[in-house]
Amino acid sequence: MSHASETAAPLGNITVLDFGQVFQGPYASFLMAQAGANVIKIEPPNGEPLRHRAPPGVPVTLPFAMLNANKRAITLNLKSQEGRELLFELVQRADVLLENFAPGTMDDLGVGWDVVHKINPRLIYATGTGFGITGPDRDTLAMDLTVQAASGIMSVTGYPDTPPVRAGVTLVDFMGGIHLYAAIVTAIYDRERTGKGQRVEIAMQEAVYFTLSSGLDFYSRTGKTPQRTGNQQSANSVSPYNVYKARDGYVAIHTVSEQHWLNILAAAGREDVKDDPRFKTNHDRCQHTKEVDAIVGAWLATITKAEAVAASKTFRFPLAPVRDIPEVMNDPHMHARGALNWVEHPLLGRVVLPSSPLRLHGAAPVERKPSPRLGEHNDEILDWLGKDLATVERLRRDKVI
What we know:
By secondary structure, this protein is an alpha/beta fold.
């Protein structure tokens, strides 16, 4: 698409005050920045927690660089009256304030929803928490691992004869960030109609509930508590569905239709069993999962991952190699689409950074800018508020910034 037919960045007229920390909040504001929003990352003078995860001698972590691209950074000491007053000046010019502190933190600092809403009734105030800002579990400390446990995810992850296992990725924080972004953009749209801002909130526990769909279905149908099933489908409602060993690694198969099963048999040279009553329908196969897995597994054990992928493309059935982190980071497909890019980062050197997964084909691409150093844009943003250099220097001396 030519640049002539592209429109301005969709959120180019939106200013975000970003108090996001670690993953959940920063991912929501990252998506906004990638859509063109003016995101001002506000941190205490010693920086947000993710900055402190870098080991000695490492200036910044890759996750920080990924999540804070295209943002400007300012430090504010909200425990000082002047720091709060500077925030209120920013609030007057902002469209969104985003935070994912423990419930009540911003209220305790005197800068919560009730206060800032009066200053700017059009402000959208977005809160991301583990369990919500109301209810009996409101004040329960929430981290990705603990919410995975409380939400039920860990109970169905792993194998029947092993303890519960967490998902191997930071699942809950990012699911929370996605939903927080959706809530903010929904509120921006609603403000176009009403002219009023509102408070929006996301609880990570609620954001991941829908991921339990198969287990919820199994319990609703049988009255039995779903158990850990390893790589097999938790509700035992699809077969074949598993991870199988190839000659040089593992591949995953997830069939959806009867045709997929027939195509697998054709690829494996096992069309002799296509009329076997044990395998005639998906329901039949689910009653004989071990036998199904034995047929599929015996074939895959004789070929490489690449040969299995080639067979899946020729015969058309869903299969993917189990790839490690370096393989994914260097994925030619994602690089070809611009989802991943090699970037010269001023602190990290040459690294792979992701773009936003949200693709708006009519919008002009946003220029890529590296994650900011702590307080890098203090002078620039305070100048935007009309503060002269002498005032900025005094604020620095007084540890307000």
